[in-house]
Each structure stands twice: as structure tokens, then as C-alpha cells.
Amino acid sequence: MILTNYHSHSHYCDGKGSPEQQVQGALAQGLRAFGFSSHCPVSFENQWSMKAGRLDEYLAETRALQAKYEGQIELYVGLEVDFIPVTADDKSASVSVGMANPDEQPLGPENFPMLDYCVGSVHYVGLNQFGQPWEIDGSSVEFLECLDTLYGGDIQTVIQKYYGIIRQMVETDPPQIVGHLDKIKMHNAARHLFDEAELWYVEEVEQTLRAIAKAGIITEINTRGNYKRDLDLYPSPWIIRRMKELSIPICINSDSHRPEEITASFPLAYQAAKAAGYTEVRVLLGGRWQDIAL
Ligand SMILES: [Zn+2]
Ligand SMILES: [Zn+2]
User: Fold this and answer.
1) Cross-strand bridge partners of residue 117
2) To which H or E segment does residue 24 belong?
3) Which residue range is the domain that position 150 belongs to?
4) pLDDT at position 95, please?
5) Residues whose CB is under 5 A from ligand 1 (ion)?
């Protein structure tokens, strides 16, 4: 079996260890290909993105590793890029919000000659009660405070906004890989907010999957919620089954933040992919995206 992982973080953002330590971890865990995808700098202060001034160093260091380890492992240079659209109700923003990527350019590869690929992720939904971008994958305490203060606990409205932003990304600015599709469900562990079988939720997911299928891009099966929080995969197995019906290509990623996490919970992801009927995964090998047997 050929193992790959294109979603990983190092000390350039909120991960632990250097890019070379990641490579050592990937070699020790038997990977054929490994992609660096630090959090792309954003135009406001946050706890986990790379600082804008470090991007050139990141690119130079990871490209040098690509050359150094040639013949041992295929290395690819990417970024996990936030998609943060400016919306009408964001006018009170106390910071500049916009699409966050190195040049605030659309995500297409023609605009990123310095990258091999992008993981496009939504971590922010509008603004919080302090007029700052509202982080949906941080602490549940802060998420729930904002949900109650600004939305009166109305999770349906927030989730519809969340999936709406993912669709906007996919339709206007598609990355190669959609990151952790249903990550917003993680707050259900702190307080039961919704049931994934509710019709409105199924409908949001369905619309989003149709947009992804139309764009022809990859959706990752991301294992981080499982090994970090003992949650299900991102996305949930019922969504993976629907992705298969819509012929959406998958790749299996751990979203590792430490070298030892690079293949964490991979057996669960492979099992879920197979159970959904997938026989192939899409991988970046030999410099091109291709389908190989699961
Ligand atoms: Zn992410
Ligand atoms: Zn990530």
C-alpha cells in the first residue's frame, strides 16, 4: 500500500518540530510522498498561522528538503489557505478581512507558482462579538459564547453560513484539496448543538458536495479529530458514502501537528473509504495528481 499525507504542520505555524523532523517522521512511518501545508499567513493576528515575514524562509527550506531527500521520499510544498470572504455584515470589522493567501489572489495554481498545491479550509465564519474574525475550530468555550451572544444559540444559521463559505470557495476559487469538510461539528462534543441526520443539515452537506463534485476537486478524509479529540473522521462516514456516489476524489490526510502524528488514525480512514465503496485514492506522485488503488 502506498501511503501519502499532504496536510501537515510544523513550527512555521502551530505545529511542533522542523520541516526536516516532519520528513524524518514521514520516512519512519513509510510514506511514499509527503506534503508540507503550514497555515498560510492571514492579514490579522491569530494564534496559529505562519507570520507573513516567514513565508519566503518556509518556501526555501521546504524546497531545499525536496532536493535533499530526492530518491528517498517525494516531498511537495503547499499551504493550508484560509478562505475568508468579505460579506456585507462584516462592515463593522475592526480588522481587514478578505481572502487570505500570500497575495490575496485567487487560489488557482496559476497564481501560486511557488506552491505544488493548496489545501483550502474554512476556519472563520464572519465576525465574533468583538468584531474579529470568528474562529470555528478553536476552543469550544469561546465558540459557544459567541454562538449564544451573537446568534442566540442558533446553530443552524451558523452552520448554513459555514457551508455557504465552503461553497463560495469551491465555486469561485477552488483549491486542489478541500480541508476537513465538516469540522464545525467538533463543538457538538462540548454541548449537543445539532443532529447530523436533521434534514436542514443533510441538505447543506448535499449542496456543498454537489458544488465540490462540479468543481472536480479532492476532498480529504482528515483523521485529526479522531486521534486528537476521539471524534469521528472529518467528514463523517455517511458523508464519505455520499461523496463516493457523487464520484468525488479523496485523499487521506492526518493534518499532523507533530512528526509522530503523520499516519495517526490512518487505518480508520482507509476502512471508512473502503466501506463507502472507494477503491482508489488520489495522490500527488511523480509531480501529478493520479488515482491509485486504496
Ligand atoms: Zn485546518
Ligand atoms: Zn491543518
Assistant:
1) 78
2) helix 19-28
3) 3-293
4) 45
5) 121
